[in-house]
Specification:
Keywords: Signal. The protein is mainly β. The protein contains one helix and eleven strands.
Length: 168
């Protein structure tokens, strides 16, 4: 009888200990690359009224959530830095183009800020990482197509775009 009671106690204790351990497989998590977009340079006069075009090339395994048309979902791109304050909410339009054979994925953003803003940080982009974790050098901004406009809609020259990246 003592042997049966001992084995029953041992079996019960083992069951309790193992049931608290889970499967031993970590839950999958989605990693994110967070890009803080900025403009650099000096304005002769006035303020930036619009980022007329900024195209970011994304590395393999990095995407952004979109609807069926390729339009980036709300919340993926948000105003930050210079455009995060004030009562006028920036109007953001963006298109994600998935990678194809021979070309990397791109994200093109247009942003209008009626109150205007000075050079500096203007947007935060949260990308999904589905492959290996990229480094900042795996992303790029096409400076040749980067365009800004002033509050009157005139082209601004002499500004460049840059970003910083963090992984969360």
């Amino acid at each position: 009888m003592r042997i049966i009671l001992f084995f029953f106690t041992l079996l019960s204790a083992s069951f309790l200990l193992l049931s608290a351990c889970g499967s031993g497989t970590p839950e999958p998590t989605t990693r994110h690359a967070v890009l803080k977009l900025s403009t650099q340079g000096t304005l002769a006069t006035g303020k930036i009224g619009a980022i007329d075009n900024i195209t970011i090339t994304l590395p393999s395994g990095v995407t952004v959530p979109t609807d069926a048309t390729g339009k980036v979902l709300s919340g993926v791109i948000s105003p930050s830095g210079q455009t995060a304050t004030g009562t006028v909410v920036p109007i953001i339009d963006s298109i994600f183009t998935p990678a194809t054979t021979g070309s990397q994925a791109t994200l093109t953003i247009k942003m209008v800020v009626a109150a205007g803003f000075d050079p500096g940080e203007f947007a935060t982009v949260t990308c999904n990482i589905t492959g290996s974790v990229p480094s900042a050098t795996d992303f790029s901004i096409n400076q040749a197509t980067f365009k800004t406009k002033d509050l009157n809609g005139a082209d601004i020259t002499g500004l460049t775009a840059s970003f910083t990246m963090s992984i969360i």
